[in-house]
Amino acid sequence: MSFSSPKVSRASNKPPVLTDPVRYPESAPAPMRSKRAWLLLALTLLVPGSAQVVAGNKRLGRLALRCTLVAWALVIAAVVLALLNREALLNLFTNPLTSLALVVLLAAAAAGWAIMFMNTLAIIRPSLLAPGMRGLVAAALVVLMVATSGTLGYGAYLLNTGRNAIGSIFASGPDMKPVDGRYNFLVMGGDAGAQRIGRRPDSIIVVSVDAKTGQAATISIPRNLQNARFSPGSPLWKAYPDGYNCGDNCIINFLYTDVTENHKDLYPHAADPGAEAMMDAAGGVLGLQIQGYVLVDMAGFSKLIDALGGVKINAGGWVPLTGADIPGTTAHEPPTGWIHPGVQTLDGYHALWYARSRQWVLEYSRSQRQQCIQQALLKQMDPATVLTKFNAIADAGTKVIESDLPAQQLGSFVSLALKAKSHDLKRLTIGPPDFPVEFSTYPNFGQIHKRVQDLLNPPAPKPAAPAPKKSGTSAGPAAPAPATTTPPPAAPAAPSAPAAPSAPAVTQQYLQQLAINGNDEMLTMLLANNGTCSPG
């Protein structure tokens, strides 16, 4: 019995029939190869991994498809979360741990997408393309890689920059809780110039925000306020049981340096005892519990404004850029320049002068201008501005801002800031025009507390009284119309007196000449309105 080997099909000894031009482009005509190249690039752009499944390494393609589906699921989840709970989404981006995870994911996605594009190029096999088509496909590949991997990589870089800035500026600690439904923050503009001993906050503003609606109010405290009281339970009761009441040496902005140098032991666990003391003082003055502070170094404030591209305001009056001190006196040289009235965009240098200048005006005019700058900045902090200038803002912020706000809660505060943009910002100044001038020296704290509460919790409007009924009814006869009388002829007009000579127009040259002449009285009158300001 003989055994013969099975017949082998002639077809089994031949290579596969190359009829699939997508996977086997060798036998396809040149136009088909070009279409195949563009198809594979489009698949990698829209669904990374699909090109490998169709025409390359299927195992690699399946792995990439799984990653793509997970990425799309995360994007969809983020969109849903943004619609349902924007605050939670913002907290993911600002929390130190979750933001680090996001940075790693973005960087990995950028690298993975780039790898898939390079692998797609190998699958395309440019050598099979016409010479002119090779350059077009290669250029398209570069553009797509920059638009995809480059964007994701830049996003990871920005997020990491923001994460580092948050870690440098803000504190770690438990979340802050609203008090009476509000968050109250102390915002100080600190100055540690060469001619000063220690840092003094020349700008003292409390920002109070409704924890639900985002309705915000700013309350300015003049830097020369005397007899400041402290919030209940403050450690400063031990040092100043009757309040900060030693006259000119105890104006409120001296408190920061005083506590930092002489009473640091009252705040043994505070990173910045002076700032904690200022929070206690501001809380006692206004009758509020202050939960956190933000301290802006005024010397670097101009960098932050420049990072934003300037700040747009509508100035109501002329503001001088004060000249140098005259040695041995309290006087100054004539101004080095002027900020004119009207709508304008101030760069950092001029915005800083606008917020600080107080020559020939009361302290309260400067407080009003500082509030205006804050309001204008809030108006400008739209997402487009922040994203396009994020790196410069973050870099400037790490150099000029110090705060005890908890980093992990920043998402909640950013969400409130976005809500605040839909409301008008309320403003109150502890001084003219809201209070008499003498309030800086002899504050009536009961009256201040009442005004603050009326600002934050305005009483409900009283219902309008019903209109009185008209006399007479349709049942009775109509009242006779009053008789008309002809007015007497007008007396002849008296001859007009010669017109008084018109005052000279207020120009920068005119104001500068007044300053050179030392005409302080006229300058005080002409600059009295320079606290008037609104966002541009």
Q: What does this protein structure show overall?
A:
- With 536 residues, this protein is α+β, with helices and mostly antiparallel strands.
- The chain folds into two domains: 12-169, no CATH class; 182-456, LCP protein (Aminopeptidase), CATH 3.40.630.190.
- The chain has 18 helices and eleven strands.
- The strands form three sheets. It has a six-stranded mixed sheet, sandwiched between helices. It has a three-stranded antiparallel sheet with strand order 8-5-11. A two-stranded antiparallel sheet has the order 6-7.
- Helix 4 (86-94) crosses helix 15 and helix 8 (255-262) packs across helix 9 (273-286).
- The radius of gyration is 35 Å and the shape is elongated.
- It starts with 29 loop residues before the first helix and ends with a strand.
- The model is unreliable at 1-12, 193-197 and 472-501 (pLDDT under 50).
- Residues 467-484 have a biased composition (Low complexity).
- Residues 1-22, 455-501 are annotated as: Disordered.
- Belongs to the LytR/CpsA/Psr (LCP) family.
Low-pLDDT segments, ≥5 res: 1-12, 193-197, 472-501
Mean pLDDT across residues: 84
How much helix, percentage-wise, in residues?
Answer: 40-55%
Largest sheet, described in full?
6 strands, mixed
What coarse outline follows from CA principal-axis ratios?
A: elongated
CATH topology of the largest domain: Aminopeptidase
- Overall CATH class of the largest domain: Alpha Beta
* Spatial gap, N to C terminus: 107 Å
For the record, the count of structural domains works out to: 2
Radius of gyration: 35 Å
CATH homology-level superfamily of the largest domain: LCP protein
* Number of beta strands: 11
Which architecture of the largest domain does the CATH hierarchy give at level 2? 3-Layer(aba) Sandwich
**What is the overall number of helices?**
18
Strand order of the largest sheet: 9-4-1-2-3-10
Strand-and-helix sequence, N→C? Answer: HHHHHHEEEHHHEHEEEEHHHHEHEHHHE
Structural class: alpha+beta
Content of β-strand: 5-15%
InterPro entries: LytR/CpsA/Psr_CW_biosynth, LytR_CpsA_psr
Family: Belongs to the LytR/CpsA/Psr (LCP) family.
Protein name: LCP family protein
Organism: Arthrobacter wenxiniae
